[in-house]
Fold this sequence. Notes:
mainly alpha
Amino acid sequence: MYRNEFTAWYRRMSVVYGIGTWSVLGSLLYYSRTMAKSSDQKDGSASEVPSELSERPKGFYVETVVTYKEDFVPNTEKILNYWKSWTGGPGTEP
Length: 94
């Protein structure tokens, strides 16, 4: 009986794996075709390229803006405190 249960479980998991694989492949195919159609439509409507974009850029410039909040609590700490409230562990005091 143990062998029959294992065989049934193995077949079920093979079906689940197969469905998942074909779903991913199908969604990738669908996505690639819809993106190809949308890029064809964009290419046809915008035939002119502005002179600013046709010139090669002289350098590379990146600007980063960092904003700090005064009473910011990271999401990991929120999750940890929530988990501790359920398990009865000591949490941080507000």
